[in-house]
Structures are given as C-alpha cells and as structure tokens.
Amino acid sequence: MMKTVARVLSPLLILCLVLGSLPVAAAPSPATGLISTQEALSQDQVSADRERISEILARQEVQDQLVAQGVDPAEVEARVAALSDAEVRQMADQLEQLPAGASVIGVLFAVFVILLVTDILGLTNAFPFTR
Amino acid sequence: MRFPLPAKRRGQVPGHRSRLNARLAGVVLLMLGLSLLSGCASAPRLASPEAMGVPPRVQLEGVPFHAQREYQCGPASLAMVLNASGVDATVDELIPQVFLPHREGSVQPEMLATLRRQGRVPFVLDGRFESLLEELAAGHPVVVMQNLSLPAWPMWHYAVAIGYDLDDRLMTLHSGEEPERLESFRRFDATWARSERWAVVALPPGELPASTGPVRSLQAIADFERAQGPLAALPAWEALTRRWPEAAMGWFALGNARHGGGDPRGAAEAFRRATEADPQLAVAWLNLGLTLEGLDAPERAREAFERAAALPGPWQARAEEALDRR
User: Fold this and answer.
1) What is the pTM of this model?
2) Which residues from A are below 8 Å from B179, CB to CB?
3) Substitution target from A32, A103, A113, A129 for chain B, most B beta carbons within 10 A
4) Interatomic CA distance for residues B53 and B36, integer angstroms
5) Quick one: A6 exposed, middle or buried, by C-beta within 10 A (0-12, 13-18, 19+)?
6) ipTM of the modeled complex
7) B212 contacts chain A (CB < 8 A)
8) Chain B contacts of A70, Cβ < 8 Å?
9) Which domains does chain B have, with CATH numbers?
10) β-strand partners of B145
11) Where are the domains of chain A?
C-alpha cells in the first residue's frame, strides 16, 4: 500500500519541488520568501530538497502506522503535524523499537523472582510492595 | 545488560550429586550477575549543593496529581505538568492525542508533540542528574522516563519529578497511582539511566529552562514553531535573544518569527543583530536583504545581498540570484 503511494507520489513531488526551486527568470518576482529557521538549522541545502520529499512521505507513513496501532483516524493528522522533522523520521524508522511508557510487564515466574531480588537491592522498582 | 539465567539445563544432568553442583553453580552465577548489576548502578555522585547552585531541598507545590489508569502513565504525566504550567487539560482529553492503543503505551516523540499541541514548548534536558535538580530548583516539574524493571524485560514508565532532598538523597515523584512518592537517588537513577535519562520540561513560550544551553533551546523552539507557527513562538525567541544575545541564530530565528507575524521592520532589525553577532552567518545577510527589499530599501538590500554572496556556502547561489534579479 505504502509502496504504491510512494511510487505515484514521489515523481509528482520531485517535479513540484524542482519546478518550485527553479529561479523565475521571466517575471522578476517581488520580495521572495525568506529562508525559514528550520531550513537554516538543517544547514545542508543540497540535501534539503531530497529531505523534504522523504519527510512528506515519512509523515504519511507515520500516519498509516498510527492508524495500524489503533489510533482514531480523525486524530492522526493532528498528531503527526505536531512532530518535528527528526521525530517523524524516528517514528517512521523505528516505531516498533521505541519504548512505550506503560508501566506493565508480562513476565514468567523466574523473572518475577529475579526482579524481586533486584527490587530489594534497589536496582529496579517493578513491584511497589518491596519498599 | 543481559541477565544470566542460571541452571537452565539442570534437568538434563543425571544424578543427584551433579544436580546439586549445577544448582550451586546457578546460585554462584546469580550472585555474580547481581554483583555485576549493582556495579553498574551505583548512586549518582553529585557535587555539593553550593557548587551546583541549588538549594539542598526542593518541593514544588501546585503540581496536581493525576493517578494513572491502566497503562496511561503518559497522558497522566502530561496532564500534571500541563496543569502546573496553567494549561487546563484533562487526562481524558490527552489520551486520544498521545496513547497508542495497540502498544498500550505512549512513545517519547508523541509525548513532545502533545505538549506542543497544548501550546507548551517541550525542552528535552541533557540527561545529567544535576540538570534535573536545577530544573526543580527553578520551579519546573520534570517528566522523566524510567525503566522500572531490567533491560531484558522492560517496564517503561513516565513519572513527574516534583522535588528532591540532597541530605536524605531522595527524589519526590508523582508516579503511577502514588502522589509524592519518595525514591532514593540510587534507585531512581538506576531506573532513569535505562531510558538514557530522558527528561522533559514543558514551558510557556517566553520561559526558558535553567539547565539547557542555546543550541538545545534553539532546536526545541524551532520544533515548537514548526507545529504552532511564528506568532506563538515569538515570545520564546525574544526570551532566547535576551538570555543569549551572542547567539546569532537566535536573532535570525526572531527575525523570521517577526516577519511571519507581519512585522518586517522588527524582522530587519533582528536580522541586523544576527549579522552583528556573527558576520559570517550568510543566511542572516540573505534574509536581511530580502526583508529590506520588501521594505523598499533597495540600496541597503543590495549591500546585504553582496555580503551574503561573498560568503561561500549553501546560500551563496541564492544571494547571487537575488543580486542578478535587480
């Protein structure tokens, strides 16, 4: 699904960005847009355009992933919009590996015993009753 | 660190004696493993309160407690810091913004994104224990991520640090279902270290953390601006340039926010300050030129473009282009 979307979207995006970045030779434009702070912070202008393409795709991908994780589709766009570029890339690349704060643990009895000992030693805090 | 599981093959060893030996070996292994573990998790070594510049004891009042329900320590922690900072958000409102139903938890990037959506700038701290104390001393409650269990069987957890006591070496946290829980520095640091000491303060635009430097603060505000727009970020940039007037990128960002907020004169002034702070910052000369062009000051715009065009780097082409089009 993502693959087909990417295949259709990529050339279109590339075209748009290339056209957009061409100097407007015919009509001298009035004061053009400033260089944004985010753009200036990302420094490397050569790769900036390529990054913009991959970022738009990454945002779409993160939206799909969130829906797959059971998030209400009506919420997904606003959630992704508030992520920074770096966070979007992190989410797109490794959402599965990111630790999710939940404070639950599913463990075997052997692990239970080990954690009990480490709790008592003050290395962990898995069971509130050990303090 | 992986924990050695002792005596796993015990059942395969025939004979009572060798089984006993295996059990002994298992116990030895267990003790060895534990001693190794305690070796890596010693209590944090801290400078004296005077050297750190923090009071020996801090307890923040006015951080309301929200008990977590099921797995929702993420939204609960966010509600606590948001309420403390004057945002009227409830846990129920925050759950659909940050909780991942199938993961039964909340991930760090979305914790930050949710704070932005609520109009607060999230600053991720630099992971030093001292920074955590400095923020608390400055009156900022801190969301921390802990792994309450061992790395092999993680139990990720968000809590809100609201105080500390250097004499008794205790942290105070609103955590899980327990308000004002006391945790020894040692246990707290052992569980916090497993998240690479992830910690966040959420501040209204215009306030800055006590412990972060200009670069980290700049990135945090730029990320906030991307989500909330230049007008919302304007007070944050003003605060940044007041605190670090020598940071050229701060002036540059202030110029962009002013321009985006419809104040080109203020923007030109900020870009000029950026070029004073760092005459090599080509992008500031470039934006100064573009802004002056819009203000009908073609001569001064040309000067700025010439300065930008003289500096090698990614913005040179744009500056030359601006000169050519005149």
Assistant:
1) 0.79
2) none
3) A103
4) 34
5) middle
6) 0.76
7) no
8) 100-102
9) 1-32 (no CATH), 50-203 (3.90.70.10), 214-324 (1.25.40.10)
10) B158
11) 2-21+40-94, 101-131
Distance from CA of B104 to the nearest CA of A (A): 6
Q: How many helices (H) and strands (E) does chain B have?
A: 14, 8
Kindly state whether B290 is in contact with chain A, defined as any CB-CB distance less than 8 angstroms.
Answer: yes
| The residue count for chain A | 131
Q: For chain B, what percent of residues have pLDDT higher than 70?
A: 87
The residues pairing with B159 across neighbouring beta strands, listed in sequence order, are B144, B175
Q: In terms of C-beta density within 10 A (0-12 exposed, 13-18 middle, 19 or more buried), how is residue A2 classed?
A: exposed
pLDDT above 90 for B23: no
Helical spans, DSSP H, in chain A: 2-21, 37-41, 45-68, 73-81, 85-94, 109-121
**In B108-139, which positions are buried (b, 16+ CB within 10 angstroms) versus exposed (e)?**
bbbbbbbbbbbbbbbbbbeeebbbbbbbbbbe
**Residue A56 CA neighbour count, 13 Å, CB half:** 15
List all residues 6 or more positions away from B308 whose beta carbon is below 8 Å from its beta carbon: B282, B283, B285, B286, B289, B315, B316, B318, B319, B322
Listed as ranges, residues in chain A with pLDDT below 70 are 1-32, 43-51, 103-108, 130-131
Q: Do A100 and B190 touch (CB under 8 A)?
A: no
| pLDDT band at residue B194 under the 50/70/90 scheme | very high
Q: Which residues of A touch B77 (CB under 8 A)?
A: 101
Beta bridge partners of A116: none
**Cα(A125)–Cα(A118) distance, rounded to whole angstroms?**
8
